[in-house]
UniProtKB/TrEMBL annotation:
Gene that specifies this protein: folK
One GO molecular-function entry: 2-amino-4-hydroxy-6-hydroxymethyldihydropteridine diphosphokinase activity
Coiled-coil positions: none
Taxonomic lineage of the native organism: Bacteria, Pseudomonadati, Pseudomonadota, Alphaproteobacteria, Sphingomonadales
Gene3D superfamilies in alphabetical order: 7,8-Dihydro-6-hydroxymethylpterin-pyrophosphokinase HPPK (3.30.70.560)
Family per record: Belongs to the HPPK family.
EC number: 2.7.6.3
Name listed for the protein in its UniProt record: 2-amino-4-hydroxy-6-hydroxymethyldihydropteridine pyrophosphokinase
PANTHER family in the cross-refs: 2-AMINO-4-HYDROXY-6-HYDROXYMETHYLDIHYDROPTERIDINE PYROPHOSPHOKINASE (PTHR43071:SF1)
Keywords, comma-separated and alphabetical: ATP-binding, Folate biosynthesis, Kinase, Nucleotide-binding, Transferase
Pathway membership: Cofactor biosynthesis; tetrahydrofolate biosynthesis; 2-amino-4-hydroxy-6-hydroxymethyl-7,8-dihydropteridine diphosphate from 7,8-dihydroneopterin triphosphate: step 4/4
Described purpose of this protein according to its UniProt entry: Catalyzes the transfer of pyrophosphate from adenosine triphosphate (ATP) to 6-hydroxymethyl-7,8-dihydropterin, an enzymatic step in folate biosynthesis pathway.
Source organism of the structure: Erythrobacter insulae
BP GO annotations: folic acid biosynthetic process; tetrahydrofolate biosynthetic process
Domain called 7,8-dihydro-6-hydroxymethylpterin-pyrophosphokinase: residue spans: 7-135
Length: 154
């Protein structure tokens, strides 16, 4: 049985093959198709650095329909990050690629390595703005608010 996922993507470092962060995000959105069917893609937004990051980010969102369960999709997303050159580093630091599972059509998922909905997405404009463009009516399974309502609050 397939599920739908709201995926957030971000980059703020160049990649040796793909180039600028926006091109990294574009390439990563193409790579998502190996994990299922990409039903929708947002445009790519340029956002300011946060935390320890020094460079501006390119951020986007995608709706993915996949046969993967949440843990299998997480493993595939982490593998994709590594294949794009992401290395473990400082939290909130610069990165070639970040892929996060934000929401899932199955509602809430709680595991040792994964929480859906993503614990911080409700307060992150760099997630909500692109998500609002492609999944405005998706609802947070905990608070009940739509992506549109959450985006309007920031």
């Amino acid at each position: 049985m397939s599920s739908r996922y709201l995926i957030a993507l971000g980059s703020n470092r160049r990649h040796h093959a793909y180039g600028r962060p926006r091109d990294v995000v574009r390439a990563a959105m193409e790579e998502l198709s190996a994990l299922g069917t990409v039903l929708k893609r947002s445009e790519i937004f340029r956002t300011p650095p946060m935390g320890a990051a020094q460079r501006r980010f390119a951020n986007a969102a995608a709706v993915l329909e996949s046969e993967y369960d949440p843990m299998a999709l997480l493993a595939a997303a982490k593998r994709m990050e590594r294949e794009f050159g992401r290395r473990r580093g400082r939290r909130w630091g610069d990165r070639v690629l970040d892929v996060d599972i934000v929401l899932w059509s199955g509602g809430v998922w709680s595991g040792s390595a994964l929480e859906i909905p993503h614990q911080d997405y409700r307060h992150r404009d760099f997630v909500l703005i692109p998500a609002n463009r492609i999944a405005a009516d998706w609802r947070d399974p905990i608070g009940g608010l739509s992506i549109r309502q959450l985006a309007a609050r920031i």
